[in-house]
Amino acid sequence: MKQINLKVSHGYPIIFLNNFNDFSARLKKYLIQKKVFIISDTNVAAFYLRKIEQLLEKEKIDVKSFVFKAGEERKNIKILTDIVKYATASGVDRQHTVIALGGGVVGDIAGFFASVYMRGLKYIQVPTTLLAMVDSSVGGKTGVNTESGKNIIGTFYQPQCVLINTKFLQTLNSRHLRNGMAEVIKYAVSFDVKFFRELNLIFEKEFISEKDFENIIYKSCSFKADIVRKDEKETKGLRELLNFGHTFAHALETVTEYKEFLHGEAVAIGMLFVCELAERMSFAKKNTASVLKEMLAAAGFCLNINKKYDPVKFFEVMKRDKKSVSDKIKFVLPKQIGQIKSKMGVEDKAVLNLLKEVLK
Length: 360
Ligand SMILES: NC(=O)c1ccc[n+]([C@@H]2O[C@H](COP(=O)([O-])OP(=O)(O)OC[C@H]3O[C@@H](n4cnc5c(N)ncnc54)[C@H](O)[C@@H]3O)[C@@H](O)[C@H]2O)c1
Prior knowledge:
46% of the residues lie in helices and 19% in strands. The chain folds into two domains: 3-171, Rossmann fold (3-Layer(aba) Sandwich), CATH 3.40.50.1970; 174-358, Up-down Bundle (Dehydroquinate synthase-like, alpha domain). It contains 13 helices and eleven strands. Strands 1-2-9-6-5-3-4 form a seven-stranded mixed beta sheet, with helices on both faces. Strands 7-8 form a two-stranded antiparallel ribbon. Bound molecules: nicotinamide-adenine-dinucleotide. Residues 41, 43-44, 47, 70, 72, 75, 102-106, 108, 128-129, 131-132, 135-136, 139, 141, 151, 168, 171-172, 176, 179, 263 line the site of nicotinamide-adenine-dinucleotide. The site of nicotinamide-adenine-dinucleotide (NAD) has 28 residues, from helix 2, helix 4, helix 5 and helix 6.
């Protein structure tokens, strides 16, 4: 069984399983006492909650569970207060370990709850979407959305361990599988041309095997863990590299009110945008954008926006991104496939000209 040890504030492992046999035995090692509080959503719970509860109960672990209606709309303060209400009424205390059983929405909410309830409970990430396995479950960012924006309230709070079991992917639909794949492609374009070539071969196949998924997830977690290890709280300019394609993506998600694109779908278009921008500035090697475009199409992404947006207003939204510094966007741009750099001082005119073409 593979394992990555992430040495952040407290070191913790990312453990890779491909079955449920030793799931509870592995998980048990990271509990304070034999008491867990599972947080999940309705879709995940319908497939897996009873199964996980039974596995834990077999180990004589006391289990309490809270399930909320699936969807990004639920990632808000109201759900947090609902969980607190349930937790206090059912006796969840600091002897309990919180288990985040679900995708990124569950992971972010459960992590946030764990970081503030009774001044902090230990928690374990059990990601069930590809996006959560390769990205959100690793690195300790937690949070909820408010009317003022996405992930506007949150904490850095690292789990005790991340338990990745690829069997969960069997019930995930193809759109959400592809959604996670955008972040996988992001790691390849950002850090490793060899991985990019491997992905190209995988996307040529009729279907992606479980072995391929295991390999893809392991490599992606290694890239993320490596960055988080060096820049846990995003203060050293390294963790921001993980935002390749994200400034454009966040703006696209905002102007479409989170209704048209899943995050990964917006990131795919965002990565292409910055590749094109970098090429036009002669920052990136020629054909970087066309090589990426081919891969994204092979992975099944639709790369058209299909609606007109005012480029000036869109640019304003991009500038409001959390990563901007005094109204200037710090772009993460590719030099070539496998190498990125963050760059201040990209001319507004260059961005606007490209936006006019993309958003027409
Ligand atoms: N904390 C971080 O570092 C970080 C990083 C990236 C994204 N995020 C957050 O992650 C969230 C998106 O995560 P997501 O894409 O996993 O969305 P999600 O959690 O909403 O899951 C997507 C859908 O799949 C369902 N689902 C989950 N696992 C399933 C399974 N195994 N089988 C069948 N259905 C399943 C869910 O119920 C949901 O309907 C966003 O809120 C984003 O802000 C956080």
